[in-house]
Amino acid sequence: MYNGVTEQWNVRRAVGTAPSAACLPKEFGLTGKELQFMPGAGQQAAAAESGSALPSQASAGDEAIGHQPVLLEEVLQGLSPAAGQTWVDVTVGGGGHAWHLAQAIGPQGRLIALDQDPQMLKLARRRLQGLPVELVQARFEDLPAVLADCGVAAVDGVLADLGFASDQMDAPQRGLSFRHDGPLDMRLDPHRELTAAAIVNSWSEAELARILWEYGEERFSRRIARRIVEQRRRRPLHSTRELAELVRSCVPRRGGIDPATRTFQALRIAVNAELEALDRLLALLPGVVRPGGRVGIISFHSLEDRRVKQAFRDARFWQVLTKKPVVPTAAEIARNPRARSAKLRIAQRTGQQAVPHPFHHPHDPLPRR
Ligand SMILES: C[S@@+](CC[C@H](N)C(=O)[O-])C[C@H]1O[C@@H](n2cnc3c(N)ncnc32)[C@H](O)[C@@H]1O
Question: Which of 217, 231, 354, 369 is 20 to 30 A (C-alpha) from 67?
Answer without folding.
Answer: 217
